[in-house]
Protein 1
Amino acid sequence: MSIGSAWSIALTGLEGTLIEVEASITAGLPRTVLVGLPDSSLMEAKERCRDALYGAGFGWPGEHLTINLTPASMPKAGSHYDLAIVAAVLAAGGKIPREVASTCVLMGELGLDGRVHPVRGVLPGVVAAVTAGRPKVVVPSGQVGEASLVEDAQVFGVSCLDDLIEVLNGRLVLNAAPVAACRDGDDPATSALPDMADVLGHPDARWAMEVAAAGRHHVFLHGAPGAGKTMLAERLPGLLPPLSTPEALEVSAIHSLAGEQISGLIRRPPFSSPHHNATVASMIGGGARLARPGQISLAHRGVLFLDEAPQFSVSALDALRTPLESGWVSIARVMGTVRYPARFQLVLAANPCPCGMNATAGAACRCFPATVRRYNERLSGPILDRIDIHHQIAPIRASLIRAMKDAPESSTTIAARVAEARARALARLAPGGFCCNAEVPGAWMRRELPEPDGGLKILDDAVQRGRISSRGVDKALRLAWTLADLSAVDRPTREHLAAALTLNQTEWMKTA
Amino acid sequence: MSAALERSKLGKWGEDLAAKHLASLGWTIAERNWRCSTGELDLIALEPVPGRAPNLVVIEVKTKSGLGFGNPLEAITATKLLRLRGLACQWRRAHPGIGEGLRIDAIGITKPPGFAPRIAHVRNIS
């Protein structure tokens, strides 16, 4: 009996577990048995590996071959175990030295012709390997850039089985990270981001978006069709500061797991705008055996934009409630429960009614009052309660456009102000472990931060008159702090509080 | 037809070679190509065991000319093995009192043209 072993990674969400792949050859009829709770895509690995090894002239053991994936009690899925299986089989047959295979962590799928195909989740996999103290990783050559994003990883890229055998024979060729140059630079896609300079007029809406960007506040844009809601929402990511390195790693790992090709760290806050027929599973993550990240996780540290929000199914909208609160989503499936980060900035856009003309000056709404009411009721109270900024976008007048002599401010100018405001907020909130105003719990804010300049009388009055709830007080305070950060003062003034109250009140409250 | 004939000739040649190989190890061939309604057993032999009655062994022989890929023994699938067990039991019932126990072995012969044949003997495959 001869045994060979190699290592690979099993991913449960973003968490990776080292898996030892053992191959043992014993006397008996030629037969290959794969044990250790493989799923069907992994079960097929033996056919791929066998044909690839025959193609490379190594052949497949003519005896009884048992391949075991330990820990054997953990369910395993995916096609990325192929390279580790081949390495273990070659080591068991004495075709390669055993020491090298048993120190490498391998991820990659094999084709029948011996080519190595890219796989999902290389980035979180390599992070797990390095954390577990096995920095030598073998990945498909097209994913060397992705794997090299992990510090301390020694990455070997292989494009075919022959490359793998070279590596396993100890003729190691470390791949210099080809993306090292753009690693700390920004995403080349930045220039393609839509610019605020394209938005004519709407000074109030531009300001609301700036406040939202500065404090990471959730926004609800209300307005007639064509007023510019979508245009404004799409420009929000361009106002946000780039992600820090740990954030960027986390975001890149989620996108790698979702099967995207990662060439460098994702530095730009992601933007995700699912269509309104999205299911609960596509929103929060799903899949038959082990859930994959959904839209809210793909928008982690970025913006989740729900256009035509009342058209979304009520269950899909309500599924956002817990992640909005916790910044995480846990999804239970047959093969285990996974937890994905989902700290996103929510932007909702809605027409005032199905025909879109309700409450628009100079336009006649064709809807029955009950229809308008039903339409607006689709957005549940708990969701709306978590929105800090409610903004009504008025249709722009042609005369207004002509009246504007100066070109509108560009995203770069606004982003610079936002970055300054964020820096002020961070300096204040760092002791509590928060990074922006929207994240701060009310209790902490009231205990640790100074009272606004001029006292809280204006808020007390609003509570007295029943205009805001106690949760509304916290929301107004958070907004006031963001406004203070934007005006570069040490604490909010009475004017900031008044502006905050206007920003966070829903339309019917303003008219009431 | 000629290809099928070639194959059956190769099979017959392989069985002869396996019988010779077993005889050289001191085994006694009890029967060859035993047929019944459900199939055929290639070789039935007695393996000498010092100090007691010989083991009764049913041997399945597989021969390949070595031109194609693969191990001749790969042709013995789980279904085939099940049928072999049934046949072995039938033979046993028809011939009580010969040898001890009942074991199934497989012999794989690879004969690439122009090279000496290679014999692989796997014991107790059931």
Note: The two ends of chain A are 84 Å apart (CA to CA).
Protein 2
Amino acid sequence: MKRSVVRLAGSGGQGVVLGSVLLAEAALRQGKWAACFHAFGPEARGGAARGDVVIADGPLDYPVSQEVDVLVALTQEAAQRHAASVRPGGLVIADTTRVREVPPGPYRAWRLPVYRSVREVLGTEAPGNVACLGVLAAVTGLVSAEALGEAVRDRFRRDGVAQNLKALEVGLRLGRELLAREEAAG
Amino acid sequence: MIPDVRGYLRENRMPHILCPGCGHGIVLGALLRAVHALGIPQDRLAVVAGIGCSSRLAGYVDACTLHTTHGRALAFAAGLKLARPELVVIVLTGDGDGLSIGGNHLIHAARRNVDLTCILFNNAVYGMTGGQVAPTTQPGWVASTAPYGHPEPAFDGCALVQGAGGTFVARSMAYDPRGLQAILTEALEHRGFSYVEVLTDCPVYFGRYNRLGEGPELLWSQKARFGEVGQMLRDKRFVTPDGTAPAGRVEGLRFGILHRAERPEFTHVCWSQVRRGGDP
Amino acid sequence: MARLRLVRGNTACAYGALSAGCRFYAGYPITPSSEVAEEMARLLPRVGGVFVQMEDEIASLAACIGASLGGLRSMTATSGPGFTLMQEHLGYAALAEIPCVVVDVMRLGPSTGFPTAPAQGDVLQARWGSHGDYPMVVLAPAGVQEVFELTAAAFEVADRLRTPVVVLYDEVVGHMMEPATLPDLSELVASGTWRRPSPPVQGTYLPYAYSEGTPPPLVSFGEGTRYHITGLIHDESGFPTQDPGKVGEMLRRLNEKVPEVPADQLHPEGVATEDAEVVVVAYGITARAARAAVRQARELGVRAGLFRPRVLWPSPATALRELSGRVGMFVVAEMNFGQWAREVERLVGRWAEVVTVNQVDGTPLSPRTILERVLEVSSPVPSTAAGRRIS
């Protein structure tokens, strides 16, 4: 059965756990099967944190994955540490707010100022994780923007919904612009 | 007139296991008279006990009785009280049970202020296992594991429980069963964690090892060691006369109701949260 | 309405307990089980139950036993170091025959070990961790939905057999999120404070007077029936006895009361075992890897199957022995150095070969590793290079 694995990796407090849950919930809304795995160090804030999302057409015998198809790296350390887990031909999306360079490897690497753009638009970086999901939806099509929007509406209350939906838009726009540039570049 | 409290006993469980001259029976008698005086129905009474001579008393009380593990009676009792707040839950524990292996449970029950009445039988020795030192054995006294005199200082259980947040703290002794009954009555009426430490005597080990004599002599020795008890209980002052104790010193022990405070009771707080459906 | 959602294993555990009527939780925080406590702390007051964080794991299980005697279905959850401390009261609950549920989310040990890493090293401790001879029921869910179902089943078994039941799963199962169908909170709220019904008592209540191999239903404290419970060896009345005849009889009954399959939903699962030459035996997350490995082996033309116990203790002796009548090779895959494999060897070793594949390095056993072992032992000339032959 076809499976796609997305890893969100950064540091504690950046929202990678919640981001991974929203991604998996969006996949569920689209009738797919999804599972999430989280890992972090003993620090509640600032330590390494990651969330893996496995998306498949139906239930998986064994959802744990060693290799990932897409890595979303939110810190330099995360890019350094997890790039080697990306399968050949996979994709690394690096947030240039905190990632200076992506280690070279047999994958595509796209750089986008996700958290910075969210700060510019919303005055806070807090919903940067949701913006990352917008980028993912735009460039991979793994989940739809609509399903992500529904997941956000289900998860947050009042003000949180509006803010996170805006962040989602920021991500979608960054993703679409990137695709347009890639196409233009041929 | 002393009321007949045999109705509170499981007479078919007699004879009991306590040794001749043991002070524990005096304490149980005072407790049952206090329960009787308060008119607590037997069906509303639960007695929870740990391990040791004193804890065996639970089996002789005609109530719902739970003989648990060494030192943990208070933790069992907290669960029972939370599940059945309408029960009057009495915990019987010894000095080794409650202050050594169960010390952690004692301070946390006091801190939570669970509505339990904890009676700690302090005979300064492990009786059931053969006369070893307890955390209440004063320095210098002899025990089977302190043949040359106990090298450690002793716990003051009342000070400990008061420090941990207990809201009713008292000390009495088997020598003074009427005073003990009065204190136990107040302890049972108190809403919150009440701790009553009772000095009782073990003639078979503590008395024999320290040449204090048999049961009656030990009681007299309590009196001798602690002076004119009645007056001192009333005055809430206590000065240990030294020179009467064969070894070491007994100092600083105070008698009577030593501390009272009003704080929210744990079971009540928990069930209030439940009644509000979890709303703060 | 129950609905499908993305759920963490430990959350499913809390929901399983609540849906079974659990209304008391006492626990002590420990990774990787803490989410169970957090969910119970959040949900219990809303459904008419009480949560308390105790001073340690010893007190936690003691409070559960006390509350259970008060008529509330009770649970605690922990991990290796706390499970070690709970052995004292698992033994007490087993002997005093007080129902309760203990969840052990296994991390890598011994001692403090590797708190966030999965392992399956508590399997023998779950069975034999306390002193003396006593019965133990240990359930082993392999996924989030099953954590919900088996936790709920644990309460039924605990009450019916009046015994502690351990729900044992690894860190991966506890922490991963998968789609699962759970009841809505509103359904649980509607059920309110639930108490185990106490049967009416005629005359003297004999809490240990067995009939047909089972102890009588437990009468709660406070229901107007006065009786005695002790951790001493006791007779039918609950009071201590030293009569060798009564002591021996009481312990024999106690140790024989748990049937091999304690409830209908607890039968072992067999996958492609009908024509299998090699059967992989695995539980928890390892069973999921084994299932993938078996599928891959079949694609390679190897007649492999999977035997997955839902109940580790008592071990499914009948089912395993029956299988050994037609299967010559068992591969026991575990995240320990062969704990349950000893039981498989004991049960089928006279009729079949039992080999193991073990991994204890902080990562779960992968389908690939299990597949390699399966291919190795199913080839015409089996190699013994990897893994261990049990002896």
Note: The domain at 3-191 of chain C is CATH 3.40.50.970 (Rossmann fold).
